[in-house]
What we know:
CATH topology: Arc Repressor Mutant, subunit A
CATH architecture: Orthogonal Bundle
Radius of gyration: 17 Å
Low-confidence stretches: none
Number of helices: 6
Amino acid sequence: MMQPAFDATLVGKALGARLDEIEATIERLRTFAFEPDTAVSAVMGEGEVLDTARELVLRALRVMSDPLDYRLLLRLLDGDSDLEVLGNLLALPHAAIWERVNDLVQAGLVGRSLEADQAGLTAAGQALVELVEAIARAAGEGR
């Protein structure tokens, strides 16, 4: 059975949105402008964007390659989840699961609601998990 082609543009745009958030945060910290509507100027020069985007993509792949983090991502493929549920799944205390989720948020793979103490996949996280699963299925079928 033929699998649909992977849409690199979808993942790229989703991680690009994370890159925009990082850049805006850096500028707000630099100017101590903590109001969300504060105008920000570009932080990166044109030549830095591709290198920084590449680093963000590689970081996302590196973070999701951790076996426990990948189990967490697989669980989130079914929908948003409480951190307590995720901690039970991985047999980790709340503080430890909090840090793992923070790593995934920083990589642009997961979003979180602090009020609800929940996490869910971003578009990039979902697309990359689906890609890994499709490759794994193809590898299993190719035996």
